[in-house]
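Allow me, if you will, to draw on your knowledge of protein folds for a short while. I am sending you one protein, given as its amino acid sequence and as whole-number tokens for its backbone shapes. Kindly check, if you would, that the fold set down in the tokens agrees with what the sequence suggests. The record follows directly beneath this note:
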Amino acid sequence: QRRALRTASEKLRNRSSFSTNVVHNTPGTRVNRYISRLIEARQTESEMADLNFFTLKYKQTERENKYHQLQDEYFTSAVVLSLILAALFGLVYLLIIPQSTIVLVLLVFCICFLVACIMYLHVTRVQCFPGCLTIQIRTILCIFIVILIYSVAQGCVVGCMPWGWNTNSSSSIVIISPGGTNKTMNELPCDTAHYAFLSCVVGTLTLAIFLRVSSLPKMILLLFVTILYIVILELSGYRKAVGGGSFYMRGYEPILAILLFSCALALHSRQVDLKLRLDYLWAVQAEEERDDMERVKLDNKRILFNLLPAHVAQHFLMSNPRNMDLYYQSYSQVGVMFASIPNFNDFYIELDGNNMGVECLRLLNEIIADFDELMDKEYYKDIEKIKTIGSTYMAAVGLVPTSGTKAKRSIYSHLSTLADFAIEMFDVLDEINYQSYNDFVLRVGINVGPVVAGVIGARRPQYDIWGNTVNVASRMDSTGVQGKIQVTEEVQRILKRCSYDFVCRGKVSVKGKGEMLTYFLEGKADGNNAQTRSLNLERKMYPYGRANIQTKLGTSCPSVSSVAGFTAKAGLAAGQASATHTNQTLHYLPSVPAVKEA
């Protein structure tokens, strides 16, 4: 049994390893890896195209200036490392290399200058002086520090050159050649020359410390230092003094060392500069992409807030996208308004002169856009546009979730806001009629009551409201009178406390509801009962006269005694003002047969 179990386990292991190899070595996986590498290579090529091949500068001057404005966080550290390197040179000079007054003065000056630079950099960082450490200042400091340290190292080399040797030296060196012949030469008085050469080579290492300095001045300075080193070495006659002829390799060792080290430093400086510039380019591209994403996000949010009310849009933004349940909300008191332009259908006609009806739709769009612009006022911020159906404008107020006494108190102000909005819509339409030489007439119906609001649809979500209140508001519009605002009895009961003038229309037959008592909202009066906003039937824009309106008036208005605290007026003879008025004025119209809904 144990053997069988071992055999089965080995087979399972072999199968799993085989499947793993198959998964990792499938042609599709290899193709995906190749494509990803190819995309990365092309991205690198496109980024390299933004740089000059020789100078490694950006082709865009603005981007180059922004790159130079970056702060070098490691410049102070580079100066501190240069000070440590200078101190090490001084230690080597005092312990090994023959001393000279000029080199000693250079060493002391170099150390003092580096200490002063560190103090200056510390003060600029603490005080945050703007413009005290620009790219030009950093480059000049870098060049001056490198020249100082290299001068100390070059002074050590000069002290060990043949012109400083003692020609009266009594010691000599015997050189045994492979052929058996012996040669003798004078012993070098400066037996530490190779240390001086190495110090001079390492002196150029200071260039590699300053990372943010451009590679172009580094390479120019490195070329100058290398040429100066070789010229001094050749003028001193060191290679001839060492002996061995023109092809003796030992005489060329200092030159080869400085050349190799200079090439390595130049390549390092170029690679570092290229890496820093590519990193900055990637950072700029990432920032631009992030800005584009933020811009797209803001545009999407703006579109979403235009499609949905603010609290509904916020709900979808804060919710989990994987758990998008049906959004709905019930409201107990919501004012609903339907405003239509009944005579727009007579205006709309498809002719070649109006681009097959496009110009008519353009005018309708201007009307709806002006209504939307009116809603942008701070006073109407609580009103929500629901939708437009043809030439009918639907809006509601009170759709912000509230509870308790706040909701009871807000229904009066909300419904008053909706009434003022409806009144001002007439003024907006009058202005459009005046500018376009038209005679469009507005017909408005308002109702208040409970509704259910929700969002329907996944691809094109639509925020809408449902309920009997919406149906009755729509009937108030369809059974209304052109140029008038028809409201239900509940709306009249709420707004009577807000100094609004009403005219009792009477009972109107409403489909599905039977006969309903309705009122016409005439306008709003101030404390002295002077109408500041009113809907005048005698407007010159409306072609519908008083007779046309009276033919659609209802019957059975409540008696005067049934309305406590109100003053009754018979007919429309408003020319005779009573001596005293209350805050609410109720007008009654002559009794005519009730109107059936079309």
